[in-house]
């Protein structure tokens, strides 16, 4: 059974490639293979080995490229993108958003000032290519 946000199993799967092989540093063009919450290695010492973040996988022709960022959810929905469509994705800039504990939903606060912490979130653009 095919899950939402995933391409049919009969699709051609290509090996992962580096970002420089798959696209320019500013614009990535490819066929949308899947999207959703995905696990990534955590490079921060002392924490969990992995973390979960929203991401999309694109078949760029040069290989499969994974783009990661919570801001991708909004642009995918706004553009009404579907698995199997050819898209162009560009990371535009970072914006500050309020930080919340993923378990409790409570705002994360600075211990010294009491102010709510802010996290960086990438803003993306996406275009459907016909």
Walkthrough of the structure:
With 130 residues, this protein is mostly beta strands. The chain contains 2 helices and 5 strands, in the order H-E-E-E-H-E-E. The chain has a domain at 19-93 and 124-129: Beta Barrel (OB fold (Dihydrolipoamide Acetyltransferase, E2P)). The chain is 9% helix and 42% strand. A 5-stranded antiparallel beta sheet has the order 3-2-1-4-5. The model is unreliable at 7-24 (pLDDT under 50).
Largest sheet report: 5 strands, antiparallel
- Sheet with the most strands: spatial strand order: 3-2-1-4-5
The residue fraction in helices comes out at under 10%
Instruction: Give the terminus-to-terminus CA distance.
Output: 28 Å
Which CATH class of one domain applies here? Answer: Mainly Beta
Helix count equals 2
Shape field: elongated
Helix-strand pattern, N to C?
HEEEHEE
- The chain-level structural class is mainly beta
The count of β-strands is: 5
**What is the arithmetic mean of pLDDT?**
83
What is the architecture of one domain at the second tier of CATH?
Answer: Beta Barrel
CATH level-four homologous superfamily name of one domain = RuvBL1 DNA/RNA binding domain
The percentage of residues in β strands lies in 35-45%
CATH topology tier name of one domain: OB fold (Dihydrolipoamide Acetyltransferase, E2P)
> For the CA atoms, what is the radius of gyration?
17 Å
